C-alpha cells in the first residue's frame, strides 16, 4: 500500500515514513535507508551505508537510485542524496587497532605454518629413526609457541587499543602461557 502510494506521489511523506518505520521494525536497514534517504535527517548513517552497499551490489547508477528511492523531481534533494551516498564511500582513517589486527592475522598464519612444519619434521625424523627427533620436535614446538605468543601479544595490544580490556587480558594470559611453554621447550644447553 505504502509503496504504491509513494510510486504515485514521491512527495507523500506519510507513505515514505510508513515504509521507513516498517523496514526498521523488521530489521531491513538497507530498505529503510532506501526510502528514508529522501527526507533530510531521517536516514541513519548505518542505513545510508547499507543502502549504498545495496546500490553498489546492484551496479545501480544515479537514475536507478532515483527510481529505487522514489525520489521527488527536485535537484536539491537529488544532490543531497548523492552527497550522502558518496560520503559513506569515503575512506575512513585507519585506526591503530586495525593495523595491529592485520599484523596479528599475519602472525597467526605464520603460527599455523609453524604447526604444520613442526608436525612434518617431527614425523619424518621419527620415521627415519633419528636420535635427534626429540630435539627437533621441541625446537619446532618452541618456535610455534613463540609465534603464538607474539600473535597473542599483538592481539592483546589490538584489543586494548580497540577498548576491549577483558578480551585483551585473556590474550595477554595466552601470550604469557605460550611464551612460558616455548621457553620451557627450548634447549638451553
The average pLDDT is 83
Topology, number of strands: 0
Distance between the termini: 82 Å
Into which percent range does the helicity of residues fall? Answer: over 70%
Name the structural class.
mainly alpha
Number of domains: 2
Give me the number of helical elements: 9
- How would you spell out the order of helices and strands? HHHHHHHHH
How is the main sheet built?
Answer: none
Overall 3D form: elongated
Give the low-pLDDT segments. none
**Beta-strand content estimate:** under 5%
| Spatial extent as radius of gyration | 28 Å
Please characterize this protein's 3D structure.
- With 189 residues, the protein is mainly alpha-helical.
- It has two domains: 2-87, no CATH class; 96-185.
- 77% of the residues lie in helices and 0% in strands.
- It contains nine helices and no strands.
- Helix 2 (13-25) packs antiparallel against helix 3 and helix 8 runs antiparallel to helix 9 (165-185).
- It is elongated and about 85 Å long.
- The termini are far apart.
